[in-house]
Design a protein that fits this description.
Helices cover about 50% and strands about 20% of the residues. The protein is of the alpha+beta class. Helix 1 (about 5-25) runs antiparallel to helix 3 (about 70-95) and helix 5 (about 130-140) crosses helix 10. The radius of gyration is 31 Å and the shape is flat.
Amino acid sequence: MAIAFEIIGLNFLKRIFQQNILYVLPVIILVSCHQNRVEIDDDVLLRISDRSLTKNEVIDLIPQGLQKEDSVKLFNAIVNDWINSELLSDFAEERIGNIEEIEKKVKKYRNQLIVQEYLTKMSESRNNKIDDREIKDYYEQHISELKTDMPLVKGVFIKVISSLEGKEEISALLKEDKEGNIDKLEQNWLDALVAYEYFKDEWVDWETLTELIPYRFGNPDQFLSNNKYFETEIGDYTYILQISSYLPTGSEQPYEFASHWITRLLKQEDLNQYEKQLVESLIKESIKDNKLEVVNYDPLTHKWKDSINQ
């Protein structure tokens, strides 16, 4: 009679792993479901039906440099995740009737991942540098469409320990937007700052800044129209924001801000064109090699058989 992994057997194995799994290995006794015999396998940890988990597969997933205790915990977690995933998958598969549909989705998703990985590698290796003139032309042709969906700002952001001696001097240097104050700040206090962002020469969207400060600002345009300097103390830290320039929501995006987005867009369009040409060449080659048979539809002309013959 075939012997299967019973729940009690799984619990027994899991207790062994949880107690001292790195010292029990590499020899493990497994119950064979096929020949009703006990076999010794130096690498296999567990086997469920025709699927097995090996010691090396688990060890490959553990980062190097961990403490022994952390390695044991992670080893046990990986093994337990595998057991749970496999048993739950079997349990669910026995109780749903559309496995074929799921397998179709898995195959489609797998194909998409493979193609995306290839295109990503091609994008990294292709020398598809976008010419500055091309970026400028796109900007000038679409400037009426390039509106800000949130305020843009220029200025300085600082995070400092509230108990720091000299914090008042730092605040004073930023409160008064005076020539030479930033130089004094960087010369005298840069090493004492927890965080420092200087962006007086580039536009930054408001959302990026608010992620640095744990404070609810409310309506951003209303706040920025009324404040050129902001300081708040939260916990052990003081957050200071100096605003030197501000563009409200709905403004035309400045070229230096929009150019980054335009560059990404044009690179993606170039990659899309490359993908289109690649697919067309693959179709032609597959038809020529009889790998792809055109029966009632031509994938190049997008015509049905009747219209092809007309």
